[in-house]
Amino acid sequence: MNHKAGFVSLIGKPNVGKSTLLNAMIGTKLSITTSKPQTTRKKILGILSSEDYQIIFLDTPGILNPEYLLQERMLDFVVSSVKDSDVILFVVDIKNDPTGSKTFEDERVKKILDEATQPKILVINKIDESTPEVVENLKNVFIKKNIFTKIVDTSATMGINISQLIKEIVYLLPIHPKYYPDDQLSDENERFFVSEIIREKVFEFYRDEIPYSTEVEIEEFKERQTGKDYIRANIVVERESQKPIIIGEKGLAIKKLGKIAREEIERFLEREVFLELFVKVREKWRSNPNMLNRFGYKVEDND
């Protein structure tokens, strides 16, 4: 009768460690992570179940100033996630914003937090890269502002205070039966996670604008009773000039990308796969509504 369950949005500026924090709380790698901002583009749902509670986390893209339609859709994912939530985790990177001024002077951040009536937890992340004095100063700043129900300092990469954060979340959740079976970790299928793994490797492997201009589309996914599963994926770029960069001289770059992506996919699926990668050009796909809908950047209207 006292079982708790609810939806918890992880929001914040780009590259503050939201996805790493989600993975730390879930206890497995669900959301892709790289050192580059804007790695997360969609709302990723992750489920943490126990006998007494179930937390449905919504990992969201970073709050930014949209420069093209894809980024507008990414911001829409943040807003819709907040509307769907029982609790909000606002994550700030103390290493890059020790006073909080860069984050909380952002008009979009202010608007989202002002309009959200749910309990809000401020998560001060990356404390392993700061000092106790700086952490304490930032805490005091936000205690005075009275925006947040609770403030928790963490290091997602080091696992510091993760269990404490989970306790604070559970305390704020409503009494409710489980939404999902105990053994379910997400609502996404294997195809989605395979495409995200390949995209993660693109972010890690290529520089400058290339990662931001690419999308990964799974064209074929065959599970086989005998032999390796077959996966055919397209790496979509915006311009013809980007295609040879992805492929590399004599195809060496895409071969290396395919190898590291395949190894990660096999770890995730816990079975062997045969992965084929192809490069397709779709002009200005990031500003094309039809292409964005096809790639899954469509925010459902729940009203």
From TrEMBL:
- Region annotated G2 sits at 38-42
The record's section on InterPro entries has:
G_ERA_dom, GTP-bd, GTPase_Era-like, KH_dom-like_a/b, KH_dom_type_2, KH_sf_prok-type, P-loop_NTPase, Small_GTP-bd
Q: Which SUPFAM superfamilies match?
A: P-loop containing nucleoside triphosphate hydrolases, Prokaryotic type KH domain (KH-domain type II)
Q: Where in the cell is it found?
A: Cytoplasm; Cell membrane
Q: Where does GTP bind?
A: 12-19, 59-63, 125-128
In this chain, the stretch annotated as G4 covers 125-128
Q: Name one GO molecular function term.
A: GTP binding
Kindly state a single biological-process term from the GO annotations of this entry: ribosomal small subunit assembly
Q: Which residues form the Era-type G domain?
A: 4-175
Task: Kindly give the Pfam families that the UniProt entry links to this protein.
Answer: KH_2 (PF07650), MMR_HSR1 (PF01926)
Superkingdom assignment: Bacteria
Example of a GO cellular component annotation carried by this entry: plasma membrane
What does the sequence similarity comment in the record state about its family? Answer: Belongs to the TRAFAC class TrmE-Era-EngA-EngB-Septin-like GTPase superfamily. Era GTPase family.
Q: What does this protein do?
A: An essential GTPase that binds both GDP and GTP, with rapid nucleotide exchange. Plays a role in 16S rRNA processing and 30S ribosomal subunit biogenesis and possibly also in cell cycle regulation and energy metabolism.
> Protein name, please?
GTPase Era
The gene designation is: era
